[in-house]
């Protein structure tokens, strides 16, 4: 029976909310259940090795005055900037999905052990898919540090269903929240979708984040996106200037006929870097959970080929593996 009410958000109709579901100017097509079944049944996926430890475990400093980006794994990152500690899409679960003991298994342990995290000031959630929103991890972080939790519209209800007392700030695309006198976070569009079950598709909003400072520093973070018509990426440069850094997804893209409307591939990620004018880019969303068909090491190899095809140096866009960290100046 068709739903007539959104249980997560009841705000006004807008150019990306029709009163029931959210949408964007480029709408990823709904995957047919038969296509999903076919994709799961056909064993075309490349073999991934058994669980292996990362090459290193990062031990982040308590605070960092410039910009430090450390990879936990998949889409989970610790961003330390201007003395503020941000966790983006923290996932510490061993498996992804609604059913305990089922779903994609973590192929590499987190590159930062939970107990090695510094005090967390804010958690940024791009959307509610299980590989980006780990409710037990969020609740554990909230109990330890009481960080601000910042997410797109409707996701406060998703999280509060597990802890009614938790505080979650939600914002719409184009809105800004101030983290400190030297740091703000802006929510901007992505070409993606949301949902944690069969009936809640696109009932909560998804987003990318832009972190800015009065001195002109700009960090652009994209959790998940398709390339679509490409229109949203030059807009970042128009609104904020050239990002000093873009953190872009490079994995979970095969088979292309199926994933094109959900996730960019490495060549499209390079195009996003060029579209937004980022001075440097780092790749995430690869190598930790086998969600699609490409081999574990395919994303960095395909990224290297895409950069070579464009005549761009490899160090202009580097893939981040678990435990890797980069330290950069910040304006």
Automatic annotation (TrEMBL):
Family matches, as InterPro entries: Metallo-B-lactamas (IPR001279), RibonucZ/Hydroxyglut_hydro (IPR036866)
Domain of life, per lineage: Bacteria
Pfam family for this entry, one: Lactamase_B_2
Domain Metallo-beta-lactamase: 73-285
CC per GO annotation: cytoplasm
Name under which the protein is recorded: Metallo-beta-lactamase domain-containing protein
